[in-house]
Specification:
Blueprint (H helix, E strand, L loop, with lengths): L2 H34 L1 H4 L6 H7 L9 E7 L5 E3 L2 E7 L8 E7 L11 E9 L2 E10 L14
Parallel strand pairs: 4-6
Antiparallel strand pairs: 1-3, 1-5, 2-3, 3-4, 5-6
Length: 148
């Protein structure tokens, strides 16, 4: 082999090594962009039994999200404020957490509806200022009254 062939092989190896390195760096960057901040964008909430179990380990004023069903017969509304209880099950056996929500409740809010609330403990009551209503994908338009 001549020295020019040896030089050409070295150059080709360098370009291959450079290409492989660039591909690896690119793969890492794409991975970081796609999955790196995924955990920060996920929303976790505690169910009533979990919230009560973790209550003693949380410092006062620690905000978290509480999710569950609005217990039947517990909704008491006033202008700018709603009090109700959230439970982890639809039956009477579920753990209940008293909630005080300040603000206008979501349009679909009502007894038996799933909600996710953001707030903090104040005494035995969960005080919330943010509400999201959970609903299923089934939409039923209101019935036309008087139609045949």
């Amino acid at each position: 082999m001549t020295t020019s062939h040896v030089r050409e092989r070295r150059v080709v190896r360098r370009y291959r090594l450079l290409g492989a390195s660039a591909t690896g760096v690119l793969a890492v960057l794409v991975g970081l962009l796609l999955f790196g901040n995924l955990n920060g964008n996920l929303v976790y909430y505690l169910e009533p039994d979990e919230a009560l179990a973790q209550r003693t380990s949380q410092a006062d004023g620690t905000r978290f999200q509480l999710g569950g069903l609005v217990a039947d017969g517990t909704v008491v509304g006033e202008p700018g404020r709603v009090q109700f209880e959230v439970t982890s099950s639809a039956g009477p056996d579920g753990v209940r957490v008293p909630v005080e929500f300040s603000g206008a409740p979501a349009q679909l809010f009502g007894a038996g509806v799933g909600v996710v609330l953001e707030g903090e403990w104040r005494g035995d009551t969960f005080v919330s200022d943010s509400m999201k209503v959970k609903h299923d994908e089934n939409y039923q338009p209101p019935g036309d009254e008087g139609s045949v």
